[in-house]
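Weekend entry, working from home. Most of the wet-lab plans are on hold until the incubator is repaired, so I used the time to fold the two sequences that have been sitting in the queue since the last round of cloning. Logging both here for the record. First:
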Amino acid sequence: MSRIAAMFEALRQHGRKALIPYVTVGDPYADATAEIMLAMAQAGADLIELGVPFSDPMADGPVVQKAGERALARGIGMTQVLAAVRDFRKADALTPVALMGYANPIERYGAERFVADAKAAGVDGVLVVDYPPEECVEFARLLRQAGIDPIFLIAPTSSDARIAAVAAAAGGYVYHVSLRGVTGAGHFDIDAVKDMIPRIKAHVKLPVGVGFGIRDGATARAVADVADAVVIGSALVQLLEAADRAEAPRVAGRFIAGIRAAMDA
């Protein structure tokens, strides 16, 4: 059983839902990511999504775009992303880690080399925003061979046929984009999420996480009532932007502890 599957099974047995924070590697400081990850894991994060900086992130809103730009300006690339995972694994061998990003950095790095190095670093899942299932059959096969889960997005506009295609290709969990827009958008609609989750679960047997637009404990709790996981990114990235180096891990930890408490209340 993969770390991701084991995590969801343990939570299911205890009647709890997964909290999945997202941070961009190298932001707000080039050398702080592993410490921020550890602080979040200790505060109650169940899985950590790491954003791989890219110059043209089509699904990201202004907050995450700017974080990626700052990270790129600091020289953060795939090598540094995998190094952050390795550093985190020195202190935490259990918390799953998923990389979220775009095809270009992976293809420039080399798909086979990426999969091998990601496995060696301790990566558990990979979500490539611009790799639909039918266009990454070989890449998904490489991931599965290495024991890494290929994770896919499901949009509010996804047809039943598209959801079924994702179900056939995905591993670990699926990520439901809760709104028609980019990360951090402010028009979150819990009723739309409640309507969509049963449609997804009619085809997908994996856990379903929900992200895009979740900014606080109340919204996270509402999502946790209907989904298996809550993904929160832009609000955390924005909070970290103003933190100084010494405080950044503590800022992240306090934020995650508050979201975790709200979800478990």
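Second, folded right after the first finished:
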Amino acid sequence: MKITLQQTQRSKTLKLEGKLVGPWVEELERTWRGLSASRPKKYLQVDLRGLTFLDDRGKELLGKILSSGADLIADAPLTRHMIDGIMGTRPSQK
């Protein structure tokens, strides 16, 4: 699993690559909470285009991140399917 932070003046993007499972879920949560506590607040996106798998705990965490106001980015059928599973019946983000 690889977590990369990309920043602009207006936003932060967490780019996820690989499998979001086990200890990587905790690492992503620490990273997200650190970004949430930082000042100034910026719009947050989570780029899932490089994600290949996530377990139930990963889905739960991404649901929390989404509920906090972040957007999830996906462009392939697999990642859109992952987002649909997280969001329920709401349409997936691009």
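Plan for Monday: verify the second prediction. The first helix runs from residue 23 to 37.
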